[in-house]
Specification:
five-stranded mixed beta sheet
Amino acid sequence: MPAYLSWADDGQVCRITRTDLARELDPSEKGMLSYTLGQAMCQIFAETQLSVRFFMHVARYASAYGLTFTPGDSRADFFGERTSGGYVVAEAKGRSGCLTSNLRKAMEIQKRTVKTIGGDIPKIAYASAVDFPSPRGAMRLTAIDPDEAAPNAIDLPVDPDRHILAYYAPFLDAFAHQQPQLLGDYVVASFATLGVTLGVLAPVLQRVERASRRDHIPGLRNDILRLLDRHTPRQDRTLNSDGTLFATDWTLPQVDRLRPGRQGRDELPNSLHQAYRSTDEGDAWREQSAMEGDIEWRDLPRASGLMPGIFPLSDGDLLDG
């Protein structure tokens, strides 16, 4: 993405434009870029404008639990749950050029393709399209919420507990292939070659792992919601309302990365660990003992050194100069 996009953020508005390299891509490459942007911005819109969490591709849930759909039936791409209650379904589109009037009209008359989710009618069902109105102009997102369901709209037999398990399962996969560490209240893993650090709130991870390994699935959704109610994410785009953490270090070369102050060698890691704490010391989950097979997060090594977006450099380099 940094090769194809540039962005400017003045604190109020973030403008995303294409680089010269993106404008020179061949049609199939532009199609892939547009597809990726359409999917990503559909989710960002859902989370920031509609207060949706646990937003996940329908195909991921379907593949996890063996759901099949009638050939030829269209369906939305994503579904998730609003923090205020009720499901949202969304379909994502992307265009390398300008959104045509024909596509906009098609979106306006398009019918809802999902009738119910787990027996409940979705609160919101929208289609979104990302486009670039001019060659060097900023990216734009158009979202339209159709009023009526299509005659062949499908019912998604979603189980709320299994939805949550499928949503968090990729973190279990990530930690199985990378040594997890403890950063404040979060279990994190660093993928330095990708410039990415992933994390999830420790008690959330422990409960999800218990559901995955010990088949303790009943009650999972309610347990996770109770844990998240105690969680206060920082407003810095690193910590999310679903108890996950995603940090990147994609923008600056190694020698120019921000060095966060000149604190003492012991003081800096402690202050960063404290910054990633989101719950009170007295919370009950801190006293809960691990069950057999659980990640015992208290025994994990404390995060330090190279963690993209969090610890940008090694401890020595971070504090020198």
